[in-house]
Automatic annotation (TrEMBL):
This protein's name: PP2C family protein-serine/threonine phosphatase
Record carries keyword 4Fe-4S: no
Organism per entry: Dactylosporangium salmoneum
A Pfam entry, by short name: SpoIIE
Gene3D superfamilies: PPM-type phosphatase domain (3.60.40.10)
Domain of life: Bacteria
Annotated ranges, domain PPM-type phosphatase: 167-389
Protein's UniProt keywords contain NAD: no
SUPFAM superfamilies: PP2C-like (SSF81606)
Keyword vocabulary terms for this entry: Hydrolase
Length: 395
């Protein structure tokens, strides 16, 4: 037997740090694959590194097409006239989170029959890799070959559920920068029934202090979200989340520290968007090719005062709407004697991404932000979230 069912069984039986080798043996025995390479994206999602034992120079000829497959989220095929082998590069993606790429070489005459199964196996492997990720350090180490994380960044990335999500009707992605030294900016999200809950946090302070403040807030909001009675699917009221987090922060810091936060809950069927702007990061709406600020009622940041109460507001998204959420490290980024990035470049960068999926749109805006800094190290964390909504197609 070959196919998804048998590879799932093989991966479940493998130790979590041996998934790459298990996949390679299975592909060779069941699908005639001559060689395989698993590439994992770094924390900035700009570089791919091999997850296996092979050195980068041994597979360097695969890197460029693998990066094209990762960026486009579509298979990339390499065939050359007169050569018996073909090489196929397949995105390794789970529920919309881009993990890496699977590159395989096989006889060209087997490509047509094997390709559909290989694409399914790459998706299956992405799910298994996500499950193994918290059970071994191996894949963490592969992702950081281009740099070492600070302690604060280690906390932030471990706190993050995933960097993306995609299902019919909704696509979502987020990114933190500087990826290897982020301190307090963060985002959290959860899917419960028809609701996607997203939280963007604009951290206060530096280093471990900022990371611990963010961790307290995120876990307080998760506690509120997960404490609803059985049978309710909205994942907790936004007011409950904001008020529990605000009380927890004030209890711990007595008002000396607070956290600017934007809380969102999107009904992925109807497009209803519920919001709380608690000293929030900035939110922009892209509709019909135009970019405009979402004007929300500002409320106090979480933890500034005790017993703070919050009020939800709501709006209705239209099919094809795109939301960008950016922290002040993006829209207020500044250079001497120049307009801020938000005043000069942000809207233009966002408009240029209209044909890109959320993850690539974020990468484009981040590149624009790095260009604005002209090689200088940014003075503040930067958070970008991109969310697309359209009604689900009838089954």
């Amino acid at each position: 037997m070959s196919g998804v069912g048998s590879i799932e069984k093989a991966l479940r039986a493998a130790p979590p740090d041996r998934l790459v080798e298990t996949l390679d043996v299975y592909l060779s025995a069941s699908h005639g694959v001559k060689t395989s390479t698993v590439w994992l994206a770094d924390y900035r999602t700009t570089t791919l590194s091999p997850a296996g034992v092979e050195a980068l120079d041994a597979v360097a000829d695969q890197l460029a097409p693998a990066q094209r497959a990762f960026a486009s989220q579509a298979p990339v095929l390499e065939t050359r006239e007169g050569q018996a082998l073909a090489r196929l590069h397949l995105p390794v993606t789970a529920w919309g989170e881009r993990v890496g790429v699977l590159s395989v070489a096989l006889d060209a005459d087997r490509l047509t029959s094997e390709r559909p199964r290989l694409e399914e196996i790459a998706e299956c492997f992405a799910v298994a890799l996500g499950a193994a990720y918290r059970r071994t350090d191996r894949y963490h180490m592969a992702r950081r070959r281009t740099g070492r994380l600070t302690m604060a960044a280690e906390m932030q990335w471990d706190l993050l559920p995933a960097r993306g999500y995609a299902q019919p009707g909704v696509r979502f992605a987020g990114q933190l920068e500087p990826a290897y030294a982020v301190c307090g900016d963060h985002f959290d999200w959860s899917v419960n029934g028809d609701w996607l809950t997203v939280t963007a946090l604009n951290g206060m302070g530096n280093g471990l202090d900022a990371a611990m403040l963010t961790s307290l807030a995120v876990n307080a909001m998760r506690n509120a979200r997960r404490s609803v009675p059985a049978g309710q699917s909205q994942g907790g009221d936004l007011v409950d989340q904001a008020e529990l987090a605000a009380d927890a922060i004030f209890s711990q810091y007595g008002g000396a520290k607070h956290l600017s936060t934007l809380l969102l809950a999107l009904n992925t069927v109807t497009g209803q968007l519920r919001m709380i702007d608690a000293g929030s990061p900035r939110m922009l709406l892209v509709r019909g090719g135009q970019v405009r600020d979402m004007e929300l009622d500002p409320q106090l940041p979480l933890g500034m005062f005790g017993d703070t109460r919050y009020v939800e507001e709501s709006t209705q998204l239209e099919p094809g709407d795109r939301l960008f959420v950016v922290s002040d490290g993006v829209h207020n980024a500044a250079r001497p004697n120049e307009a801020t990035y938000g005043e000069r470049e942000l809207s233009r960068a966002i408009r240029s991404t209209r044909l890109q999926p959320p993850a690539e749109a974020i990468s484009s805006v981040m590149r624009s932000l790095r260009d604005y800094h002209a090689g200088d190290e940014p003075l503040d964390d930067a958070l970008i979230i991109c969310l697309d909504w359209s009604p689900r197609a009838d089954p």
